[in-house]
Design brief:
Blueprint (H helix, E strand, L loop, with lengths): L7 H4 L28 H10 L6 H6 L4 H4 L4 H6 L5 H12 L10 E5 L3 E5 L1 H7 L2 H4 L21 H22 L7 H13 L9 H11 L7 H15 L3 H6 L6 H11 L6 H5 L29 H11 L7 H9 L1
Antiparallel strand pairs: 1-2
Helix pairs in contact: 7-10, 9-10, 9-16, 10-14, 16-17
Length: 332
């Protein structure tokens, strides 16, 4: 055996030793991920990458940087020399995509149904709280796992899946229908609502609502949606998340109202709003963005991503063949 071994000196050369990898310098052709740090040059590079290079000189003359891009409106572009409406809409469509970009890297979760999913850093602040972590111990299907061992998925992974799917739909709408003017604030609020919509579930999920509460407290009406709103308020207050939400670009209390209205509906439903002559019962967003209220918890017809993700989790017990169809249904 020794005769078959090559001498160590013949195997190793001075270049064979271990070397610490050097930090790679950013490539000059790549844009800074945070568009708010772009200067005039990087703004022009972005326009060229989007196929809008013919308007680069107009942006340079006005010294438009990355900070100003998200504030540009149709009238501003017209003053800059973009005379045709089609050209202005094309520029606005490209700029709207910046509203959904995140300066910090997203957090990656390995979801058992949807695979690797990315969530914005702000959502991680909600996930890393005791109030949200308790969902790890609440089974999605109540006591079904005692009969079907595979039915052991929990509310924690379900809520992450809803936040992921809701984010996908908002991004798809923003790309395909820029005239909807979906902002990054809208996208974050929809994802937070999807993440926190089940915070108020008790032990064994719906079994707690439908069986335990009626027997233990027959005189009261208790719903997990109302408990979710109370738990959400407590989570934000107890963990002092309001300053961090504002730092991420949210506007309070308007966006807090919007998140809670997506979970539990309008705070003043029905008669009281109509009596005051106000037809639109929501405070968080105007009526032209009513479609955002139908993504997480659709009070109109019940078709929403909370239901889609719940079906996805149940199908995981038997098969995963139709999960792609369900996700495709939601994003078409």
């Amino acid at each position: 055996m020794d005769g078959r071994k090559r001498p160590l000196a013949e195997v190793l050369t001075p270049d064979d030793g271990f070397k610490t990898p050097e930090k790679r310098a950013p490539q000059p052709g790549l844009l800074e991920p945070d568009h708010t740090r772009w200067g005039v040059e990087q703004t022009g590079r972005y326009l060229r990458a989007e196929g809008l290079g013919q308007w680069e000189d107009a942006f340079r003359e006005q010294k438009i940087t990355g900070v100003g891009l998200q504030y540009l409106k149709d009238a501003d572009l017209e003053k800059m020399g973009l005379q045709f409406l089609g050209d202005r809409l094309q520029v606005l469509h490209s700029l709207r995509k910046l509203w959904l970009r995140e300066a910090e890297p997203n957090k990656v979760f390995n979801d058992p149904v949807h695979g690797h999913v990315e969530l914005p850093p702000l959502l991680l602040l909600f996930i890393d709280t005791p109030q949200f972590q308790r969902l790890r111990r609440i089974k999605q299907l109540g006591g079904a796992y005692l009969v079907f061992p595979g039915a052991s998925h929990n509310r924690f992974e379900h809520c992450i899946g809803v936040a992921h799917l809701a984010g996908l739909l908002v991004q798809t709408l923003n790309q395909r229908q820029p005239e909807l003017l979906i902002s990054r604030r809208d996208a974050l609020c929809v994802q937070i609502a999807g993440l926190c919509h089940d915070l108020g579930h008790g032990p064994f999920s719906h079994m707690f609502d439908n069986m335990f509460i009626p027997k233990a407290r027959p005189g009261i009406t208790w719903k997990h949606e109302k408990a979710s709103l109370d738990m959400f308020d407590y989570l934000v207050s107890d963990n002092q998340l309001q300053p961090l939400m504002e730092r991420s670009g949210l506007v309070l209390p308007e966006d807090l109202d919007f998140i809670k209205e997506q979970i539990g509906g309008p705070a003043d439903p029905g008669g009281r709003a109509a009596a005051r002559g106000r037809e639109w019962p929501f405070k968080g967003r105007p009526e032209d963005k009513s479609f955002l209220y139908e993504i997480v918890a659709n009070k109109r017809n019940g078709i929403d991503f909370a239901r889609v993700c719940e079906v996805d989790g149940q199908k995981r017990i038997c098969t995963r063949d139709k999960v792609g169809f369900l996700v495709g249904f939601g994003t078409r």
